[in-house]
Amino acid sequence: MTREQFVENAKESLRIRPETAKRYAQARNAMLEEVNAAMAAEPGINALIGGNPLGMMCNNHRHHVEFISTVLQFGSFTLLAKILPWVYRTYRAHGFSFDYFPLELAAWKKAVENHITPADAAAEIVAVYDWMLKNHPLLITLSAAVPGEEVPYPELGDKRRMFGAQLLAGDYASCLEIAESVLAEDRGQERLYMGLIQPVMYEIGRLWEEDKISAAEEHLATSVVGRILAALYAKFAPAGANRGKAVVTSAPNEYHELGARVLADLLEADGWDVLFLGANTPAEELLGLLAKTEPRFVAISLTMPFGLDKVEDIISRIKADPKLGGVRVMVGGAAFNIDPELWRRIGADAWAENPRAAIEQATAW
Ligand code: B12
Q1: What integer is the mean pLDDT of 145-169?
Q2: What is the pLDDT of residues 122-153, one digit of tens each?
Q3: Which residue's CA is minimally distant from atom 54 of ligand 1?
Q4: Residue 283: its pLDDT value, please?
């Protein structure tokens, strides 16, 4: 079965009622405790988790319960089927054995049976775990192939390789030189963002995923990119801000901010008066700022799917507040790009896959 067929299979075979999803969410902590204890008591657990500390395993279990809760709440089995091969690949690269997964999934299944009532709700969720267990061999196969995406601006290949290597070496001066040379080309700002920085950051993510670089090296690369963007900001041609005001932010608890920043800068270059808030903006504070600044729209960036409920909450509060009646909501980022149906389910006015589509949408508004 291919990756695409696997996604189709998930969408066709799995169903969950909204009240069942709520029960799973309510039982999260109790199930997490049970699974942590059961797996810690598993004979040979040290080998199964590759000698990593038990705390790392427990942390992964927390991610699991948050992730499955999101999948069930939004009924997005596309999300489930697309992320599972990544989970297998990343855990394996960080030392976990593939044999850990059937044991872990069986422990979750048992926890569901112990903590979720009535029995028909538990049975619906057990069916999801059974589906994952049944597909364990396939997931091992699918996890071996890293999905490649088409990289724009192929002619920048050499510069990307050099930029990536210098980022990981923390060589700010060399990186700035490469970035400036790309900025000097035709449509330089877009080339810099979409042809150099974004693909190189995606590659840095893959290297981390495969345990070829550490989290510290990934942090170093991100921080050098941040310094370069700050240094180059003054060189971006001002467009005159005549289109209206826009607020761009990352969702609450969302620490990825570069995508939102790229969008903010490109909207600004297109003539929008942009207020860029950066990472992890609390809902309450965002709503306060929207009321005060009355933008034409707010663009919310989300990378990690477990933040979907927070974005949904913000949108419903914007829609319920008469003072914010004129503010439209656009969403984007990796979490929405994984499943292009999600933006409707959370009540957004629009989703855009990339800054260019976002600018088209903003212009249409
Ligand atoms: C740098 C980085 C971090 C940094 C972020 C720092 C910062 N200041 O931004 C830190 C260290 C904080 C981080 C943390 C984590 N990260 Co991280 N991170 C990355 C990395 C390597 C690069 C992100 C980036 O800058 N991308 C470049 C930007 C330009 O691309 P983009 O975000 O996709 O944005 C574009 C579009 O999506 C779109 N867009 C984005 N937002 C919006 C909004 C709107 C409205 C619109 C229209 C469009 C739009 O336009 C942008 C420009 O084209 C990615 C790899 C990757 N594939 O992205 C992993 C990655 C996203 N991280 C990942 C993970 C797992 C994590 C952690 C859970 C790790 C952990 N165990 O703690 C945490 C989660 C923290 C949290 N709660 O948010 C995984 C996610 C995998 C998944 N299955 O979902 C990735 C993919 C790495 C990987 N290959 O495994 N991370």
Answers
A1: 91
A2: 999 999 999 999 999 999 999 998 777 788 89
A3: 205
A4: 97
As a whole number of Å, the end-to-end CA separation of the chain is: 42
CATH of the domain at 299: 3.40.50.280
Structural domain boundaries, residue 119: 3-144
Instruction: Tell me the C-alpha distance between 72 and 61, whole Å.
Output: 16
Chain-centroid distance of CA 211 in Å reads 19
pTM above 0.90, yes or no: yes
Q: Rounded CA gap, 166 and 81, in Å?
A: 35
Q: Is the CB of 263 under 6 A from ligand 1?
A: yes
Is residue 331 very low, low, confident or very high in pLDDT (cuts 50, 70, 90)?
very high
The dihedral region occupied by 2, where left means phi > 0, alpha psi between -120 and 50, and beta the remainder, is beta
* Mutate-to-test residue for ligand 1 from 91, 212, 256, highest number of ligand atoms within 8 A of CB: 256
Residues 8 and 133 in one domain: yes
Show which of 183, 204, 233 is a domain's final residue: 233
Residues 12 and 135 in one domain: yes
Instruction: Round the average pLDDT of the chain to a whole number and report it.
Output: 95
The Cβ-side half-sphere exposure at 18, using a 13 Å CA radius, reads 2
Q: Is the pLDDT of residue 2 over 80?
A: yes
* pLDDT of residue 52 exceeding 80: yes
Residue 238 lies in a domain: no
In a shared domain, residues 97 and 49? yes
Residue ID of nearest Cα to ligand 1 atom 34: 259
